[in-house]
Amino acid sequence: MTADTTHLLYLHGFRSSPQSAKARITAAWVQQHQPDLTWWCPQLPPSPREAMQMLLDRLAGWPAAQTGVIGSSLGGYYATALAERLGCRAVLLNPAIEPARDLAQHIGETTAWHSDARLYFRAEYIDELRAIAPAALTRPERYFAIIAKGDEVLSWVEMSARYRGCRVELLEGGDHALSDFADHLPEVLAFLGLRNPATSGRGSRSPAPRPRR
């Protein structure tokens, strides 16, 4: 039997932040239903090497069997790398499959989605992305991928192929941001062994709070 999650990490995507809708929805659920859960949703540095080092340093003190990671887009790529290194469970939301290829066109200065902050995506970050790529998924049961066929940024075919053999929810339509993430949150929580303590039964479909736009 899989242990319940006591430590939960959320990883945002490229140009995103802890202010993303999905991160805020998850944070609101934790605050309302599991305030004793160890929760971390950091702002990731642009450098993949620095991001992974920061994550590994912090997670070194977390119990792998009770750790869950939720990663969106590029955060899904990092989440997969962490799951392979540490042995924790990971939920992937439209995860990036080949970010070294796809982000090459974004080298240079760009802007963040949720603030006026500017960031510089350097050419050397492409090699850093390649350096952290896991070669294979050693234990498919660790992974739950939610993939939208309507993703306008990433290929659902590539995502599905990458997580073949894992638990996959393939959505007809949808978008890259998974704008209906609140509807999928109960399944995410159930996979991680989290539930609303006010309800009975593991993985009950407790309503997920929706942040104001």
List the helices and strands and how they pair.
Elements: E1 7-11, H1 21-33, E2 38-40, H2 48-59, E3 67-72, H3 74-86, E4 89-93, H4 99-102, E5 108-111, E6 118-121, H5 124-131, E7 143-148, H6 156-162, E8 167-171, H7 181-191
Parallel strand pairs: 1-2, 1-3, 3-4, 4-7, 7-8
Antiparallel strand pairs: 5-6
Structure, briefly:
The protein is an alpha/beta fold and 213 residues long.
Assign the CATH superfamily: Alpha/Beta hydrolase fold, catalytic domain
Using the alpha-carbon principal axes, give the shape.
globular
Count of domains? 1
The biggest beta sheet is recorded as: 6 strands, parallel
Low-confidence stretches: 199-213
The helical percent reads 25-40%
CATH topology name: Rossmann fold
Please name the CATH architecture: 3-Layer(aba) Sandwich
**What letter string, H or E per element, gives the SSE order?**
EHEHEHEHEEHEHEH
Number of helices: 7
Q: Give the strand content.
A: 15-25%
State the distance separating the first and last CA atoms: 39 Å
Pairing-aware structural class of the strands and helices? Answer: alpha/beta
- Overall average pLDDT: 89
Give the radius of gyration.
16 Å
What is the number of beta strands? 8
Top-tier CATH class: Alpha Beta
Description:
The protein has 213 residues and is α/β, with parallel strands linked by helices. It has one domain: Rossmann fold (3-Layer(aba) Sandwich). The chain is built from seven helices and eight strands, in the order E-H-E-H-E-H-E-H-E-E-H-E-H-E-H. It has helices at residues 21-33, 48-59, 74-86, 99-102, 124-131, 156-162, 181-191; strands spanning 7-11, 38-40, 67-72, 89-93, 108-111, 118-121, 143-148, 167-171. The strands form two sheets. The protein has a six-stranded parallel β-sheet with strand order 2-1-3-4-7-8, with helices on both faces. It has a two-stranded antiparallel ribbon with strand order 5-6. The longest helix has 13 residues, at 21-33. It is globular. The chain starts with 6 loop residues before the first strand and ends in a 22-residue tail after the last helix. The relative contact order is 0.17. Residues 199-213 have low confidence and may be disordered.
